[in-house]
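Backbone-to-sequence.
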């Protein structure tokens, strides 16, 4: 119960009615606050998403453009690489042909040595009263592919198609072996020296 004179009571009532009126006026607006906060948050999220998407699209366009610009260099680079590859392939081919020619010449030399060896050993066997024909296989085992390989090794020890190349870099080694693989068989790359087999490529 409000105490005081009438004037004070009227003033208090007036302020109370003004407050009541203000509450009634602001009540609906205040009730909209949660919805407005939600809409504001959604608007901000949508704006941030659009901004992120726009930035991503701009970056993607930039990267695609750069990739397309770089791709224009591929034809020129590929042509240059193919020219060098063909040059290296031809060089490997020439090296291999020279070594094949050397092997063929050494096969002739080995055949001469074989005949001399057979003749000498045969004479020794005859002097000892043995059949010279029995030693043909023994003499043949000392000649042929294995001896020819050793002869060419003696001329050029430690030969390798990639000798002197910096092949500690795996890419260089792989490229070199890839091109070399089109010149010689892969087993010759991994095992360049022919195995010494008795009677293999025997001298006739």
């Amino acid at each position: 119960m409000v105490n005081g004179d009438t004037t004070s009571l009227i003033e208090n009532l007036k302020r109370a009615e003004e407050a009541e009126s203000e509450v009634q006026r602001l009540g609906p607006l205040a009730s909209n606050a949660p919805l407005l906060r939600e809409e504001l948050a959604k608007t901000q999220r949508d704006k941030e998403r659009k901004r992120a998407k726009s930035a991503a699209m701009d970056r993607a366009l930039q990267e695609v453009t750069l990739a397309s610009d770089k791709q224009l260099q591929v034809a020129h680079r590929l042509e240059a690489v193919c020219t060098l590859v063909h040059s290296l392939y031809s060089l490997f081919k020439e090296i291999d042909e020279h070594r094949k020619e050397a092997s063929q010449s050494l096969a002739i030399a080995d055949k001469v040595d074989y005949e001399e060896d057979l003749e000498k050993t045969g004479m020794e066997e005859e002097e000892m009263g043995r059949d010279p024909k029995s030693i043909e296989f023994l003499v043949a085992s000392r000649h042929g592919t294995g001896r020819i390989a050793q002869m060419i090794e003696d001329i050029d020890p430690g030969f390798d198609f990639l000798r002197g190349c910096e092949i500690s870099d795996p890419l260089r080694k792989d490229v070199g072996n890839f091109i070399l693989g089109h010149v010689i068989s892969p087993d010759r790359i991994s095992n360049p020296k022919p195995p010494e087999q008795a009677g293999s490529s025997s001298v006739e």
